[in-house]
Each structure stands twice: as C-alpha cells, then as structure tokens.
Task: structure prediction
Amino acid sequence: MSGAHLHLLLNHIPTVAFGVAAALFLAGLVKKSEDLTQAGFVAFFLNALLAIPAYVSGNAAEFVLRDQPGMAASVITAHQNAAMLGFVFMQVTGLVGWVALWRFRRWTIPALLALSATTFALMARAANIGGGIRHPEILAGDPTVSGAWPEVAAMGTAFIVNNPWVWPICEIFHFVGLCLLFGVVLVVNLRMLGFIQGVAFADLNRLLPWAVIGLGINLITGMLFFLASPDQYTQNAAFGWKIGLIVAAGASLLYPVVSDEIRLLKQDAPVSMIARCVAAGSICLWLGVIFLGRFLPYIGSE
Amino acid sequence: MGPVLAQLEQTGFATWIRESGVLYGYPLILFLHTLGLSTLVGLSAAIDLRLLGIGQGIPLKSLERTFVLMWAGFALNAVTGSLLFVADAQKHASNPAFYVKLLCVALAVGILVMIRGRVFREHGTGKALAAASLACWLVALSSARLMAYIAEFIS
Result:
C-alpha cells in the first residue's frame, strides 16, 4: 500500500470522523451527559492525531499525480492550502479537548463549540476542493477555488525554505520538545509501573501538560521540516512508520487523564495490570518514535 | 594535539564507525546518543519544573529513583559521545560549538549533583539551581545541534 492509497483511506477522517466527534460533544451538552461530552473531548484529540497521517499522505498522493497528464496543479495546490488551514484548527481543537479532559474549565465548552464549527467548515471546504482533483465538474464555476486564500501551506514552505536560519532553529526546538515530552512521559508512566512510588497521581497530573507542550513544539517544527521537503519524507517508508507510531503514542497521552483508576491513584496505591501494560506500551511507542526519527535518513528510502 | 587526533581518527575502529555504512555502526550510536540525552535531559527537566513550582505536591523523595536512570543516560552518552568524537576527532576538536556543548553538559550535570545534595537531601530551595539547569541544557542542546552547521561554516 502506498502513501497515495493511504490518503484515500484517511482523507474522510477529518470530515466524517470529526463530524462524529462534534456530534458526540453536542449530544453531551444537550443531554447534559458528562460521559458523552468526555467522549467528544477524546474524539477531538484522536481526530487531531489522525489528521497528521491524513495530511502528510496527501503529499504522497500529489507525488504520484504530479506528472499525470490533465492534472490541474492549481486545484491540488488549492486543496493543500485549504487542508493546512483546516489542519491548524483541527490541532487547536484537539489540544483544547485534551485540556478539558485534563482539568475541566468552563471556557473550554464555548471554545470547543467555536473551534469545532470552524474546523468542520474549513475541512469541508478542503474536502470539496480535494474531490475536484478527480472530479473537476463539481468545481466548475466556483471562484473560491483558484488560489484558495490564505495560502497557509505555501507560506509555511516559503518561511522555512527562504530563511536559512529556520531549519537549524527548528532542529533545536525539535530536541527541546522531545526532552520535555519524553521526560514527563517517563515520570508519569514509571509511576504507573511502580518504579516511582510514594506520589499521588493528582500531583503528577500537573506535569502532564508539559508533555503535550513538547508534543506541540515537535508537531509544529516537524510539519515545517515536512513542508520544506515533502518528497524526502513521503518517499521514505520509515517516515510512514514514524507517523503511525506518533498517532498511537499520542493516543496514550489520553489514558492518564481518562482512566479513573489513574486519576484518583493514591500516594502508595498499587496499579492494575492493564494500566501497567498501557504505561509500558506508551514508553515503548515513544522509544519507537525516537528510533525511527533518528534512523530515518539511513533506512526507508531506496 | 593535532597528530594524536589524526592518529585517533585513523584507527581501524574509528574508520569503521565513520565509513562502514552499516546500520549497527554510526546510525545506532547516534540513536543511543539521542536515547541517553532524552532520558537524562528529559528527567532532569521534569525535576527542574517541579522545583520551579509545577506540581508542587509531588514529594521529592518519590523522584529519587529517577537518578539511577539519569546516570545511566549520562553513562550511555559518555560512551557513545566518545565514539562519535573519535570518528571525526579533528573536525570536532576544531569546532568551538563542541567546547560550548561539553562545558554546558558538565555544568548541567554538576548542577544535577548539587540539586540531589542540597535540595533532595538537605531540603534547601532549588529554584535558582533548577533555572540554571534548564538554561545549561538549552545551550547544550543548541550548540550540539549547531555543531554540524558551524563545522560547515569553518571549513
């Protein structure tokens, strides 16, 4: 299966699965059901993670289509710019969803209402333009397509390509983000594994956002690397596996904020076998991400 | 120093690291170096955050066991770092960023020892030490990353 194939599989997630997430969230608000609202928060975060492979596989599809006769490059570019704008809003929605799970604040509800509506509208536009790549008839006479303002993806590419200092600075921040993320992941998961003892999880919980901040730093810097040189990544199998592991490892950041056992864990309480397995799995997944990231230049490309 | 470094670079082992092209050579050493740094710097940064007031309820005693992992990370990086150095001894020895990195790592590890002694054992306040630790790690990471660019700029 190629990256182009994967894009066909994943490209409905940011609209269809995100619609389900928003529906869960809204149903929870209307029915005043905490469980449904929480499910909506979880779904927002998972959608944001899955949007990463959905976005980067788009460039793999573009790599294949680029040289085919009759391809309207302007429509592909318009689709990419629209998708990047929706992607940015999708990530912010996922972040606020995670924050609402971590420590519920009243502002998260109106924020998520506004963000999810905006994200959905932007993603629907991106999907519509994307459909037009193979079905030009649906875009006939649509003046909003050409250019697809604002050109977010193109601006990101220009920023890193035209400024030679941006790439090295991003590399530094990619390591800073990695250290923040991995350090906090280790502390939290080692408590769940029983290696660290004598601390209630409610206290460790305060460190967790720093793992998410680290992930955020690495998502931004990583996407800039990708925008600068998409073919180098989409044509590398190790990159595909790295993104897959990031989705799984990122999802493991939900466990300590969702599981009642962990959230309410007392100072010296033992942890269940399931939670230990999740903790061990989380550490292994992040190690896999680091491994593939480091080996990426040496494996995966022909 | 020059001839010694040149000889070091020409040893069979250094040549193998640099030129063999096998995955369990240079790439593996580089990965282990990243693993060691993310364990040492990551855990050290988490302790710094705690000392600066994030998660104040976390008893310091509960974090004592992480020092074993941090020393393991440091040992791993002393070994892998030496291997990476001998592979390109002359290039690294002529790179000012390399010395900045070594100095900052030494300072940060020294600060970590002080944090363990003064804050963990004697219950002193550790805010200044924690801030200094984060600053040292940041400069160490930055200069390490910039080594390749500065080497290119010099040559």
Chain B touches chain A at residues 23, 27, 30-31, 34-35, 37-39, 41-46, 49-50, 54-59, 61-63, 65-66, 69, 137-138, 141-142, 145-146, 149 (CB under 8 Å).
